[in-house]
Structures are given as C-alpha cells and as structure tokens.
Amino acid sequence: MLAPFLIMLREGIEAALIVGIIASYLKQTGRSRWLPAIWVGVLLAVSLSLFVGAAVLFAGREFPQQTQEWFEAIVGLVAVGLLTYMVLWMRKAARSIKGQLQHAVDQAMVAERGHSATWGLIGMAFFAVAREGLESVFFLLAIFQQSSGWGAPMGALAGVVVAAVLGVVIFWAGVRLDLRRFFRWTGLFILLVAAGLLSGVLRNLHEAGAWNSLQTVAFDWSAWLPNSSVLGTVLSGLLGYHESPTVGEVLIWALYLVAAAVLLWLTRERGAQPPLHRAEAKPATVPQGIATAAPSAWVAWAIVGSALLVAAGVAAFYYATKTAKGPQRGEMHRVVVRDGLCEPMNFSLPAGVTTFEIHNASKRTLEWEILDGVMVVAERENIAPGFHSLLTVKLKPGTFAITCGLLSNPRGQLVVTPSASSEAERLRPPVQAFIGPLSENRVFLIMQTNALVRHIKTLEEAITAGDLAQAQVQWLAARVPYKRMEAVVGRMADIDNRIDIQARYLAQGEDDPEFRGFHRLEKQLFGQRSLQGSAAVAEQLRLDAEQLQQRLKQWQQAPEDLAGSAVWQAQRLQESGITEPENLYALSDLADLQANLDGMQKSVLLVDELLQGAKAPLAEEVRQHFQALQSALDALKNHDQSSFLPYSEVTATQRQQLSALVAALAGRVEQVNPALGLE
Questions:
Q1: Do 448 and 602 touch, CB atoms closer than 8 A?
Q2: Taking CA 40 as the corner, what is the angle to CA 132 and CA 296, rounded to the nearest 5 degrees?
Q3: Are residues 418 and 437 in the same domain?
C-alpha cells in the first residue's frame, strides 16, 4: 500500500503543482473566470488514463502464461525507465517550474477570441495531468503485479486524495511550497522501488524462458522472513523483496542503484540558489496582448461531459479488473477455487489448446497450477479473492494434478485424452530426421548461387566482346538459378532489391537511380538492344551475386522452412507473379515460372518420405498438384518443346489457369508442416 501511495502522491502532486500554478496565476491576474477551462483539461486527462488502464488490463488478460511474463517484464521496464526519468527531471527542474509555466499560460492566452484561449488552457491542463496519469498507469500495473488484494488500490487512491489536497493548498498559497526536500527524499525511496521492479523484471524474463543465466540462489531467508509473512508481503509489494532471490536479481538490483546514484550526483545542484518557497511575490499584471475576454459559453457543458467520461472510465477500469478476458483460445473451462477444494476436482479434456477461467472464491490470494509430478506445466499467480484470471495452455495427453488453493489442500486431477492434433504431433519425425533434407537443400542452394555467379561472369565477357546475342543468352541462363532459389532469396529484401528490383516499385520507374540488376540489363539487352552502359550494371550485378553466394554459405534453415518457403513463393506468384509479367522486354516469364517450380518442388519433395509416414494421402496430393502445374507449363512450350512461348502470347485465360493451379498447390503444401508436427 505504501509504494502505490507514494507513487500516486508523487505523480499526483506533480500534476497538482502544475495545475495549481496555472490556476493561481489566473487568479492573481484577475482571470478567475477561466478556471473552468482548466477543469475540463484535468477531467479529460483523468478519463484518458482510466480508459488506458482498462485497455491494458483487457490486453494483459488475454495472454498465455509465457506471453504474460513478457508483458509483465515490458511493463516493469517502462515503469523503471519512467520512474528514473521523473526522479532526475524533478531534481533538476523543481526550482524553475513556476516561471516556465507562467510564460506558457501567457502564450496560451494570447488570442483574439475566447475560443483559442479556452483551448489553450484546456490543452495545458490536459497534457500536464495526462502525462502523470499515463505514467501512473504503468507504475501501478507493475506494482499491482507484485501485490494483491485492496491494499494497492486503496494506497493509490489515498495518494491521489492527498495530492489533490496539496494542490488546493498550492493554489491558495500562490505556490510558495519548498518542494526540494520532498522530491529529494521521496525520489531516493522511489529509486529503491524501481530497483525492486527491475529485479522482478529479470524474474519475469526467466519464467518466460528468455533469461537463464545467474540463476543460483544468492541467499534464502524463507525461514525467518518468508514472502507470506506480513513484513515479507509489505517488502515484496514495496521494494520487490523475494525470500530467495537469484544472483542475477541481486546483481541487477545493486547495479541499478549504483547507476542511479551516479546520475543523481551528476545532476546535483551547483551553487546556492533560492528555494522555491522564497520566490518574491510581485503584483500580478496582465501582459500586453493577452486576451481578457470571457471563456467560451460551452465550457460549462464540457465540464459535465468530461465528468461523465471520468465516471465511464472508472466503470470501465473496475469492469476490466473483474471480467477482462481478451479473445478466448480453444475451449473455455471454468474452475472455481474455494477454501478447501476446486470445482470441479476431476475432469477430462481433449489434447490441444485450452483456456481455463480460474475464479478465486476463497478468502486468500492464490495461484492455480497444473502439475506433471513435481514439474509445473502451467500456472496463474496472484489471483485475488473475488477476482478471476485466464490461463491458456497447450495440453498434451496424460494425467496431471491441479492445485486447489493451499498446498495442504487436496489436489484435483486433470486427464488429457489424445486428439487429432496431438496424434499428428506424436507422429512428428524426430529432429535428426530433417538433417538429411536440410543438408541436401543447403547444397542445392549453394550450387545455384555458383551457377548464378558463373553465368553473370560469362555475361560480362559477352558484353566486353560486344556480342549482344551471347549476352542475351547468358542473361536468360542467369535467371534460371536465381529463380530456382527465389523462395529463399526473395525473403532477403536487401539483396533481392538489388538483384531483381522491378521498376514499378521505384518512384521514378526505369529512370530511378536505384533501377539496377537483372531488369536494368534486360531493358538494355532486349528493349534497347544495345550494350552501351551495360558493363557497369553487369559488374554490380556480379558483386551482388557474390555477396549472396557468401551469405548462403552461412544460411541456416529450420525444418519448417523447407515447405514454408515454398508456400511463401507460391503465394507471391499467385498475387502478382503470374497475372502481371515481370520481364517486360525479354518476355521470359514462363521460364522464370518453371525455375520457381523446380525450386519449390526440390525443397518440398525433400520431406516427401517423412510426409508419407505421417500422412500418405497428403503426400500423394502434393505430388499430383506439382505434376498438374508442370503439365500446364509444358503445354505452353514451342512446337519443338525446346523453349517456352513469349509471355505476350499467353492469353488471359491461360494465365488465370496457371494462377489457379499455383493457388491449389499452395493450399496443399500449406498442410505439410502441420502434418509433420512443425506448426
């Protein structure tokens, strides 16, 4: 309760100070009638903060356990960063804030009509309070994740109330409060809070599986200061205390405090300066050019509307804490945990993704776990009495225990029966079964890059010799290996955009300085039928191909990439590669498509033997669809079957047929990874 109280007091008094200075300045200059505009900005900012808090609660509840840990870690990091920034900023700026804000009010009031001045004041109050309110959302979420019950909310509310009272005092006293000492000591304390949050972030990252170093327990105080004790609970919520922290958690806690101390020393005050409460009181005057007209008539209605928004924000935030679910994943199963048992205690579910809605109907904060022996399969922690939480988990067949509140309570039983998806996963080949296909595909890609570089070098030689016909032949020959590996290389955006960029994707089309590679040469060799200026373009194409050659030697593919890259290539072809020709001058798109088909077929059929063992009918369908597309391409060859027709002679109907066959192929290949358990 103390940590949220101090945070909300600190953030609240910062907002109250700013609003109080603005209000006091208006009153001193005889413009009290403008005060309602400030309240509009304050109420709008409060409602925004409440709605953001509700949205974050709804978002957080939809995450599975591992993602929830990531979410908590990110919120904690944001909170630590903002806390640190605000402590340092207030240490530096507390003395000069009055003069800066009075100048800003003058600027906001400079207007020819009341409307502009009204919006200026609303905007100032809104952004002053919204900044503190939105920061408080992140701070309190991080604190609430390490606290439970009503202590934290009540502490936060008490901090806001005290800050509001201080704001009223600031207003009537004309901002004569010495804030240096207040911010100095509370700032140091909040840095300790931030250090505890950062230590908790490291714990979240470990539970999310992202951090596994320095996990040796530094010390164990569970015997004399357990987390469950009153003092342990207070210290846990206040400073992130843990009864048995790891070496990494202690180390990051200490390093943060050292770094914060250094920053505080570097931003220390130099030389004597008069404190804020000694500011000399001078008669207030209205600066020349500042509007003194009455505020807009609609301000009163705006106050009513803003107040209603705040009420709606409170309702949304409360509703989110009680019912926030987010989108459900899999079947939803309700579990009610009472003081000595769960309802139900024993149940059976099919394997797969399942979401549990865990309601805490007991009198104490609890965690609900699914256990496989002594190992935790999944869990949801810190469910406060009267609240509920969601846990999404992918269940595997087996018999598991479930905890029901206290560790001394009887445990329930969860029986997970096999399902179609779990059977497919069970049939998944072992990892070592993919070593051969991956190695063979790697060799295939390296051979294609070697052929690409070789043909480009021959192309350069033909250009140097002034042989246009040979240059055209080598350009076409170089396209084949590149298109065979396009399913992999096409996803390397930097290299693909240098080697195979199309003019339609450039701002100046073919006149764009970035128009290079294959298609720049294509225009010169086939469109202009000229070798002039092509030597430099061919040289750069070779350099880019050599860079690709080196990159592919280090390229690592996962088992799912074998079929996954083919799906990506097929979808790319379906979207534009068939209906919109790529080779506008060479008209060799059918040869490109044949090379694409060769490359896709190579990678997919490398797992054909594995697929036959897992799902033989699908393996047969995949082969049939590859053959159907090949037959359609063969029908578009010249009479002697030695080459393809120019793409300009391919009718719209034939293109649509090719596109449909590619789509059907993609649909079958898309099923390969799930069939092999590679989802």
A1: no
A2: 145
A3: no
Q: Which residue has the tokens 């329930």?
A: 412
Alpha helices per DSSP H over 427-555: 435-465, 468-484, 486-489, 493-499, 517-522, 534-553
Sheet holding 412-417, edge to edge: 346-350, 412-417, 398-402, 366-372, 375-383
Is residue 354 domain-resident? yes
Cα separation of 321 and 60, whole Å?
A: 11
Residue 220 lies in a domain: no
pLDDT digits (tens, 9 = 90+) for 285-335: 444 444 445 555 667 778 888 888 888 888 887 677 666 554 446 678 899
- In-domain check, residue 265: no
Beta-strand relationship, 346-350 and 375-383: unpaired
Specify whether the CB–CB gap between 333 and 359 falls below 8 A.
no
Residue 364 lies in a domain: yes
* pLDDT per position as a tens digit, 473-486: 999 999 999 999 99
SS3 303: helix
- Looking at the structure, tell me whether residues 317 and 335 fall in a common domain: no
Residue after which a domain boundary falls, among 426, 445, 470: 426
Cα 597 to Cα 300: distance, rounded to the nearest angstrom: 70
Say if residues 456 and 545 touch (Cβ distance below 8 Å).
Answer: yes
The separation between CA 602 and the C-alpha centre of its own chain, rounded to angstroms, equals 35
For residue range 655-666, list pLDDT tens digits in order.
Answer: 999 999 999 999
What is the DSSP secondary structure assignment for residue 637, as one 8-state letter? B
Q: Say yes or no: 54 and 74 in one domain.
A: yes
Is 616 found in the same domain as 535?
yes
Q: Which two tokens stand for residue 294?
A: 């009455």
- Which residue range(s) make up the domain with 559? 431-675
Contact at 8 Å (CB) between 219 and 244?
yes
Q: Which of 378, 413, 412, 418 is nearest to 394 (CA)?
A: 378
DSSP letter string, 180-196: HHHHHHHHHHHHHHHHH
Same domain, 459 and 549: yes
> 132 CB contacts (<8 Å, ≥6 apart)?
11, 12, 14, 15
Average pLDDT over residues 581-591: 92
Position 484, amino acid: R
Q: Does residue 115 share a domain with residue 13?
A: yes
By three-state DSSP, how is residue 337 classified? strand
